[in-house]
Write a structure and sequence with these properties.
The chain contains ten helices and twelve strands. By secondary structure, it is α/β, with parallel strands linked by helices. It has one domain: 3-Layer(aba) Sandwich (Rossmann fold).
Length: 294
């Protein structure tokens, strides 16, 4: 089953590029992380579509094939984009989507669920609890540590080989999907789709925002999907604390720990993640039935 490409122009906003799969069961909206793209969800998308779900993976503003908007590169604005997209897709009532976001995309999904509603359920895939002010005393320190490497001028084939070598356990197609993070220029070199100044704006948003303040307003079933090392590292200890805090504050949340998984676990383990997401959709269906019961 193959995706078909589409674009949606948001009212007063940018055109967003989509990778879509038709299906009759509850739809999924899949949201990538910072400086990533919709194709990283291809493996998960195919498994969900084969199970009968409608699936849309979106390139967020300034990412992938979406329009390079001049401004609006904050978590809150990108959540507003997704709310408008859901409206454009007509996903309401029993078609309210399960929305899954990876890394920064998880923070976007938290903001979407808390401020806009209209979801059937939410999945936070190794993100949704990112609060960079916990790690850095100032934004300048944060940016110095997290500014992206400079890819401009790197040959595309060399970048693809490097990805394949670093992720030898990824399934076929995952490296190609990750290569969608960059534009391949006529001379065969690459540059990121997301401009550096916009990358910086998103990192600032992650530094200034506190998703914990939003958790009590997320009134749908939530699945947290953290990736942790075994044995745990110091960052894993901090991540476990953040996840436990989220579980305590979210009204209806469960967790599935992915021990030994990559941060890009949606690319690494698409079948397992799709299975967990299908169970989350079943929770959304059961909740809808309970609410509709006399």
């Amino acid at each position: 089953m193959e995706a078909y490409e589409d674009q949606v122009a948001l009212p007063g906003g940018p055109r967003l590029a989509l990778r879509r799969y038709a299906g009759e069961r509850r739809p999924f909206l899949l949201v990538h992380g910072l400086s990533s793209n919709a194709r990283t969800w291809d493996g998960v998308s195919r498994h969900l579509a084969e199970a009968g779900h409608e699936v849309v993976a979106v390139d967020q503003r300034g990412h992938g094939r979406s329009e390079q908007a001049a401004e609006g590169y904050t978590t809150q604005q990108c959540a507003t984009d997704l709310a408008a997209l859901i409206g454009q897709l007509g996903w309401t009532g029993d078609r309210a989507p399960v929305v899954a976001g990876q890394s920064w995309g998880g923070n976007v999904v938290v903001d979407l669920a808390a401020r806009h509603g209209g979801l059937g359920a939410a999945a936070l895939v190794d993100g949704g609890w990112i609060r960079l002010s916990d790690r850095f005393a100032s934004f300048e320190q944060c940016w110095a540590a997290l500014a992206p490497p400079v890819f401009e001028g790197m040959p595309a084939d060399a970048m693809a080989r490097g990805l394949a070598e670093r992720h030898a356990d990824w399934p076929p197609g995952a490296v190609a999907g990750t290569m969608g993070n960059v534009e391949v220029l006529p001379d065969g070199t690459v540059r990121p789709w997301l401009r550096r100044e916009h990358h910086r704006e998103i990192v600032r948003s992650l530094y200034e925002d506190d998703p914990q303040q939003l958790y009590p307003d997320v009134r749908v079933p939530v699945l947290l999907v953290p990736a942790v090392a075994e044995p745990p590292t110091e960052p894993d200890t901090a991540k476990r604390e953040a996840v436990e805090a989220a579980l305590a504050l979210l009204p209806d949340a469960r967790v599935r720990w992915y021990v030994g998984a990559d941060h890009d676990l949606h690319a690494q383990q698409p079948a397992r993640l799709a299975s967990d997401l299908r169970r989350l959709a079943e929770r959304a269906d059961a909740r809808a039935q309970r609410q509709g019961a006399p």
